[in-house]
Queue: 2 jobs
Job 1
Amino acid sequence: MRAIQSHGKDHPPSDKPLIKCRIVLIDIEELHGHEQVVESQVNYLKTNLQQLGYFFRPILVVKKHNVVLDGHHRIQALKELGGVRIPCIEIPYLKNEDIRLATWFPIYTGQSGKFPGELNTLKIESRPVISLDSKFFSNPEYGFTLFAKNGQWLLKGSQKSLYNLFLEYYDPEKFEYVKTPSYAINSVNNGYSSFTLLRKTLTKQDVLKTAVSGKVFAPKTTRHILTFRYQDIKVPLENLFN
């Protein structure tokens, strides 16, 4: 199985200053995730970790809250291999200007049928729109705006419930994730993808509230952008097991 494909550009990592952060070991059961994981990505990372024999990338968590900001799939992969603790970097979050919250935009690179017919098959209530208007992205009634070559539709429901329907109906390995709505729309217009799902960006408060409540968002809902980069590590897997 392939890893999740993500596209788009931020500043190259080499343009960001390297900050050597303090690494702490935290029990996996004490961490609060905020996103669902994708099974194929977890399996890919399990194989990768077994081949390497060590854990290579620390998990980014909110200080004092143990809310995971980055590394959900690595956590699950290590847990399924028998890991009970995991290397983490603790950072302040809400007022930290060095961390910006954005989102990913799913694009589907497989074949799809005509819309809105397939929405009816999925039993998704939809509303056609003539143009993409930012006011719809702030309406909590609609989780996504679906953009296809033959039109665009507001999709009623939560992002999590809607996206799970798409993952069940379509081939999950044909979904890729891009960083900007313009990139997503262009991928449809140039024929690379069949459709894209556009959505608003959450707030940091949304992330904390959801995680500590035990709920999770759909996969790849959040994208945390740092003004700095932090070090990789090399912790033998045996040190993370019982």
Note: The radius of gyration is 19 Å.
Job 2
Amino acid sequence: MNILSFWLIILVSIGFSVNVNSRKLVIDTDGEADDSAAILLTLSTFAQKVSDHEVVGITCVYGNTYENNVEINILKTLTVANSTHQIPVYKVTTKPLVEKFVYTDYFGKNGFSDFEFKGKINGHVERSTDAASALVNMAKNYSGKLDILALGPLTNIATASLQDKNFLKNVHRLYIMGGNIRSNGRHFRPTFNFESDPESTYIVFNTSSSETPYLLYPGQTDFVANISKEWRIRELGSIKSRFVQFLNKAEKKSLSYKDKIWRGGDVITAAVMLWPNKFTFNKCDA
């Protein structure tokens, strides 16, 4: 059994408590099904005292679905998590810095395979502060102690960097899902997150502080991890957990495609953050 399947199997309930000694974490997300898996995994490990990453905020960004869906999907995820205290969710950034947002329906029109979510959706979206400003404020409040898990386009991170030149210096570590390595003589398009806002990607990697290490999970690593879609459907998908049953519905469309590899980049990026000693890292220059 691999590390991902093991933890997703045993962590089936969430009950939160605030820990003043925890490592503070913001999740910057575009609200799709794979992001939801990463959020649930991160919340679960903290609740079970397996990890000390405490989620202190969630910032929303456009992605494979439109802005309203991103916010609703995050609230659905937190409703399923059944948290005992409200994690602040900040309003979505609706477009890249320069280009127009180009919609895709890889995860369905609403990013959750368009399944009907039954029951009341709890929580609300904080609209008095935009996502980038929220990132700047949290980085100041938790200076040197805040990690960011970036699962979508880097627009919010770049905008925060432009707002405050010390923003990245205040961040302890930045985990990013995106990028390509080892082309093996073939041309690869940029991954979705980087291609969606190349200007923001450039800003983030060219305003990097030596004091703030970046951990990059390239898209091709999904193929190196080689987690089969059959395993995802037959083994993980058969677990009698409200989390897994929720994710089965949210991922239904992406799981219907013919490719044999499960593209679980967002949740694996979260796993790398939570259990770095289980993975191999290579240092590179951006």
Note: The chain has one domain: 21-180+189-278.
